[in-house]
Amino acid sequence: MLEILMQGGWLMVPIVACSVISLAIIGERFWSLSRKKITPDNLVSSVWRLYKANQLDKSRVHSLSVSSPLGRVLAAGIINQTHGREIMKESIEEAGRQVVHDLEKYLNTLGTIASITPLLGLLGTVIGMIKVFTAIMAHGVGDPSVLAEGISQALITTASGLTVAIPALIFYRYFRGRVDELVIRMEDEAVRMIEMMRGDRE
Question: Is residue 40 part of a domain?
Answer without folding.
Answer: yes
